[in-house]
């Protein structure tokens, strides 16, 4: 099963000190493939250029990309690419973005969110 990780979760790992991959392994049984999209990688790279606390957390988050497979997709809108990919490929999406979570749930996509800034769980 593919688990698509959004930029908000990569950033949250350093920001909230969450062991995202450990919790995802506990939450989802069976074989998993952790992925992200090229649009997510691009978004992280852009955010990492900023001279701020969020920029610092994003630069730390960029190092986590070595733990996932990056899938090349077309388009510029990150959320649209995530929704489209998740629908077509029937994967689980892990996000901390409320608007994206709402869109995914309306489309029937299984979604994992961060609860209480401490743990991951299904929405």
Mean pLDDT: 94
Largest sheet: 6 strands, mixed
Low-confidence stretches: none
Order of helices and strands: EHHEHHEHEHEE
- The CATH architecture would be 3-Layer(aba) Sandwich
Q: What's the helix count?
A: 6
Task: Walk me through what this model shows.
This protein has a single domain, classed as 5'-nuclease (Rossmann fold), CATH 3.40.50.1010. The chain is 49% helix and 20% strand. It contains 6 helices and 6 strands; from the N terminus they run βααβααβαβαββ. The radius of gyration is 13 Å and the shape is globular.
Write the layout of secondary structure elements.
Blueprint: E1 2-5, H1 7-16, H2 20-27, E2 33-37, H3 38-48, H4 53-62, E3 69-71, H5 78-89, E4 92-94, H6 98-106, E5 111-115, E6 119-122
Parallel strand pairs: 1-2, 1-4, 2-3, 4-5
Antiparallel strand pairs: 5-6
What attributes characterize this protein structure?
123 residues; Rossmann fold; 6 helices; alpha/beta
